[in-house]
Amino acid sequence: MSPGPLRPNPQPMLIAHTIEELRLHLGGTLRPAFVPTMGHLHDGHLALIDHARTLGDRSVASIFVNRLQFLPNEDFDSYPRTWEGDCAKLKARGCDVLFAPRESELYPEAQTVKVQPDPVLADILEGQFRPGFFTGVCTVVLKLLMAVFAGKARGVAVFGKKDYQQLMVIRQMVRQFALPIDVSGLVTQRAPDGLALSSRNSYLNEVERAEAVQLSLALRQLGREALAAASALPAHLPDLEAKAMDGLRQRGWQPDYLTVRRRQDLQSPQAGDPLVVLGAARLGQTRLIDNLEV
Ligand code: PAF
């Protein structure tokens, strides 16, 4: 089905807490369009729902805070759970089906069988600073995809480009397992000042929120400098990247990485490669990520 205009949705949103209920609700659906989330929904998620509604005959969202993708020192316990608000937003947006499994439904026993993504793609950038993160993501995403799409001829899953590396890792998994699923990436949604929308933005206090846009500004500047030095890539990159990280440090950030990569596989670029600039940095207690295709 080709993208079309959003249609009004007179049907109430159906909610499933088990895989069995989900499959009952999806009976008769030809091409589900699926948006997996961890909840605490913002306008970026809702744009994914809008996009999904143009791609399939029924839109499906999931809300599941996936323990497997959090390191022991990360915010799994404090990750905001905003069930009532999330349901209201999804209903208002015309989402057809919400899958909200309990942990015991997705992980009825310890999940000892896991999806190990290609380390060349998954152990760099986010994977370097959050070891095991993409194993946790791929494992839950594969389980969610199987829950939604089993028995369907074909479907579509929608992810935001804000998590650029995640989108690439999932595309590779879907391709290599020959899943009958198209993966659609949607452009990052931003606040008016340019900050990429993220559930974790709600951790920022007022001063941090005003400062937070500096990450995207630093990426933009790094992208401009990389393009200007394009004929000399990759020799100039380490200096440009170090300068960008220092700039953020001087403003009180703790950057993990700000780096220029080739879009195709996130490896170091050669002259002429299409580029993406990616960054992750901590502001106070909040770790933000962003990227720009330049
Ligand atoms: O991007 C996210 O919110 C999560 O990584 C995902 C894809 C829902 C898997 O838990």
What is the name of the CATH class of the largest domain?
Answer: Alpha Beta
- The run of helices and strands is EHEHEHEHHHHEHEHHHEEE
Question: Helicity, in percent?
Answer: 25-40%
Bound molecules: pantoate
CATH topology of the largest domain: Rossmann fold
Structurally, the number of domains stands at 2
Mass-distribution shape: globular
Total strands: 9
Distance between the termini: 30 Å
Q: Quick check: average pLDDT?
A: 96
Based on CA atoms alone, the radius of gyration comes out at: 19 Å
Order of strands across the widest beta sheet? 1-4-3-2-5-6
At CATH's second level, what is the architecture of the largest domain?
Answer: 3-Layer(aba) Sandwich
Strand content: 15-25%
**Major sheet:** 6 strands, parallel
What do we call the CATH homologous superfamily of the largest domain? HUPs
Key terms:
294 residues; alpha/beta; Rossmann fold; Pantoate--beta-alanine Ligase, Chain: A,domain 2; 2 domains; 6-stranded parallel sheet; 3-stranded antiparallel sheet; 11 helices; 19% strand
Fold topology:
Layout: E1 14-16, H1 19-25, E2 32-37, H2 43-55, E3 58-63, H3 83-92, E4 97-99, H4 103-106, H5 119-122, H6 126-129, H7 133-149, E5 155-160, H8 164-176, E6 181-186, H9 206-211, H10 214-228, H11 237-250, E7 254-262, E8 275-283, E9 286-293
Parallel strand pairs: 1-4, 2-3, 2-5, 3-4, 5-6
Antiparallel strand pairs: 7-8, 8-9
Bound molecules: pantoate.
